[in-house]
Design brief:
Shape: globular
CATH topology: Rossmann fold
Radius of gyration: 14 Å
Structural class: alpha/beta
Number of domains: 1
Oligomer: single chain
Order of helices and strands: EHHEHHEHHEEEE
Largest sheet: 3 strands, parallel
CATH superfamily: 5'-nuclease
Helix content: 40-55%
CATH architecture: 3-Layer(aba) Sandwich
Distance between the termini: 14 Å
Number of strands: 7
Number of helices: 6
Strand content: 5-15%
CATH class: Alpha Beta
């Protein structure tokens, strides 16, 4: 069982909520192996809401309901980290980095947390605190 505080990316949220997603069973298993709350950011929530809205009308509300139920917390006030997030976006500009990815890297730096529930292979390349690797749970 993985302790609370693991970083949470968009893909596992969408896979958990969408029974038709190819990764649904995998996401259910991974969420069941972790103790909530996960740490996430508004950019991840926005991405998940957008993607779930394409699946069905109640999808965005289901993403928000996970937070209300204590599954994840918003752990990065972006307004306090503009400079660092901008630097990460510039550092990885040659990759398909998103704002959500940069915010999760910044969360790792703040909370000293390398464990991340993600299906995004770019987290094998991203580093936090310059040279620390992520421990991918996905």
């Amino acid at each position: 069982m993985n302790s609370a505080g693991i970083l949470l990316d968009t893909g596992p949220i969408v896979a958990l909520l969408s029974k038709d997603d190819a990764q649904h069973a995998r996401a259910k298993r991974l969420f069941s192996e972790c103790v909530p709350p996960f740490r996430s950011c508004e950019a991840v929530v926005a991405e998940a809401c957008f993607l779930m809205g394409k699946i069905h009308a109640d999808g965005p509300a289901e993403v928000i309901a996970l937070a209300r139920k204590g599954i994840y917390d918003i752990s990065l006030p972006l307004a306090q980290h503009w400079t660092q997030v901008e630097a990460l976006l510039r550092k990885y500009a040659n990759r398909p980095i998103s704002l959500a990815d940069a915010c999760l890297i910044r969360c790792a730096e703040i909370y000293k947390e390398a464990r991340i529930l993600t299906f995004d292979s770019d987290f094998r390349i991203y580093r936090w605190n310059r040279n620390k690797k992520f421990d991918l749970l996905g």
